[in-house]
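Bug report (template v2)

What were you trying to do?
Predict the complex of my protein with flavin mononucleotide.

What happened?
Run completed; filing so the output is reviewed.

Input:
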Amino acid sequence: MTIQIPISEESALQSSPVGQPIAAPFYIGQVLIDPPILQAPMAGFTNYAYRQIVRQYGGVGLQATEMVHATGMAWKHQQKAENPDRLWGVPDEARPLAVQIWDNDPEVMANVARRLVDEYRVSIVDINFGCPVKKVTENAKSGSYLLSVPDRMGQIIERVVEACGTTPVTAKIRLGCSPDKINANRIAQVVENAGASALTVHGRTAADMYRGHANWERIAEIKAYLKRIPLIGNGDIRTPAEVVAAFQRYPVDGVMIARASLGRPWLFHQACCAVRGLPVPPDPDLEHQRECLLQHYDLILKRFGEPKAAILMRKYSCCYAQGMPGAREFRSRVARINNAQEFFEIVERYFPRLSFLDSGDPASDSDENLPGDCHEDSCEIE
Ligand SMILES: Cc1cc2nc3c(=O)[nH]c(=O)nc-3n(C[C@H](O)[C@H](O)[C@H](O)COP(=O)(O)O)c2cc1C
């Protein structure tokens, strides 16, 4: 049975008086995670454009790429082809930065991890043991499939740790393969004994996909099974108050946020203020959000060119519509754009300048859908 994270925003805020930090920074190996709030890897979303925007607002202790397929990367290297798109920005961007890899073969993964350390100088190599998508689990015997073969997990981690030298290696898991096969406590020990430097747990099983609620009681249980390495909790955290409550109620060293930050890159800064006991700034106004969306488009356009940028902005733009007037209509229209002109026309209409808003808003049907109506199904194998 999963238990909903019992957090009421009101009670969480009452118990985090301004002035008192709620949680302390922590280390993953030699890497300081300050604040102890992490940006989750999300395939198809957490590329360099998104990461730059998040970084600009601040408040995130560690950022992560999308998951990179080790065999795909090794093959590209062998063919002297360009590196995977998912490594866009990695060589140059600010640190700390974790690159996440997925696969099944310890040797291939170790070789790729060594290149990430030697050539890309990444801060952390993270290994995906949580992806529940069939093409990763059934076809490639990777991601969350590996939770069913802990020995294999251990071998993978050991080889990758060995290959990475002093660069820390971390693991991201789910609670187990299915509700009747929850084995996260045992897996945590395997991860730690194999030499990993941190464990992140998404409080669902692979079979749950994104249904139900993340089970933070189960995440909390894992703490007792770890002797040395930090535990990072993940799942269903949507507000600064929920970050505070997660730290107050559960023995986690860090909190990781995924879906709620899509289209709300300022969330980390807000959460950081809450955790540091500072006043939480309100969401930026619609005009600011519009600028943020346009900046996102600009970064994507420069990298991918116009036709592809329009296609990619269909999904990114939808994320920015959370809670805004006319969100449903905006999403249905923006999901059909084919070029820059169509994009700008729609943004102009649904993210009006303040002067326009003052004279009355033409569209008022708001809906509160999470951008996380998207899920890992949207990840492509590189
Ligand atoms: C679109 C999408 C893509 C994701 N891709 C990855 C991924 O590449 N690697 C990974 O470890 N988890 C991935 N996840 C899972 C998230 O990192 C996170 O564990 C999950 O969404 C629960 O956190 P949340 O409730 O804050 O969204 C993805 C999730 C979504 C919605």
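What did the reviewer find?
The first strand starts at residue 26 and ends at 28. The chain is about 40% helix and 10% strand.
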